[in-house]
Amino acid sequence: MEGEKEGEPIISEEPLLNLDSIPFANYDSLKPSVLGIQTGSIFTSFSCPFRCKFCANYNFTGAHGRRMSPKRVVEEITHQNKGWGSTFFNYGDSTILPNEASFHKMVEINNLLDKMGLELDFFLSCHLDIIARLDRENPQLLDHALRKANIFFVGVENVNNKILFSYNKHLSSDNAKRGIDALLKRGKMCRNILLFTLLTILISIFCIKWFSKNIRYILS
Question: Whole-model pTM above 0.85?
Fold first, then answer.
């Protein structure tokens, strides 16, 4: 961890366990906007429980959960809203909703925002496997957790289940589609990434059927 607090540099090789102790960021010299809408960014966690083969994030942040409390998240959002007029926020966490417990935390955040009377919009990333499961088993929790976010970043790195398994993705192509359908039927917008590695491109040259299946999946 590196940074500065009250003029004193902070340099530590030890992971910061209490994220609530991080001081508010200062955006005085940086006021990003999208189409004239003042935007803000917040990281509520520094960890990822997944170990996808194509991603090095867990090597940097660790696999164990380190999360801000819902109260601290709302304080950060309020700080940016009042200080710089931010009304559209990006949750910058690599995986802000990795499990069912994190959805309950998001419900707490949304409820606190309601009490503050803040009408804001959010963009976040999510894992489609848990979206698909909650849509089937606990749709009410899914509705309450996602109600303040309208744009979602989802990763479907491949539609070949063998390749997804080799990526250690913890996702099947069927669940990816179910997860996207669950978001779309709730009126959410999805941004998607489909990763074509050099190996899969070479394979596709010799396997037109596999390649066309990926293209059909993208178009659907």
Answer: no
